[in-house]
């Protein structure tokens, strides 16, 4: 049966269906969920999806349920080993606690990126265009 599926990026996802996956998006969000479907463009449908935030040795989850992801926004897709997932020594905290840390990290990263882009523009002649989140 596997020999009938052409070897393409989305064709190789057939073994990942009905498995718990980690998806990292272009905007930096980290989603955990069960891969239920995909298409030839690597658009994904995740079920029981949670968005996770990490800070030092803690994490927080925000439940989203069914999540449809456009393939061009996927940076990384990987299967989660259910046996090893529980062995990670992280403490779960409420989402509202880590949300403020996460927002401040995003703000400081954007500030640093803007300074870096300005220096590259002034000193090295790089173009400022294309910095709308297409860092991957």
Automatic annotation (TrEMBL):
GO molecular function annotation: mRNA binding
Record's subcellular location: Cytoplasm; Cytoplasm, P-body
One GO BP annotation of this record: deadenylation-dependent decapping of nuclear-transcribed mRNA
UniProt entry keywords in alphabetical sequence: Cytoplasm, mRNA processing, Ribonucleoprotein, RNA-binding
Keyword tRNA-binding attributed: no
Record PROSITE patterns: SM
Keyword RNA-binding: yes
Assembly mode: Component of the heptameric LSM1-LSM7 complex that forms a seven-membered ring structure with a donut shape.
Task of the protein: Component of the cytoplasmic LSM1-LSM7 complex which is involved in mRNA degradation.
Protein name: U6 snRNA-associated Sm-like protein LSm1
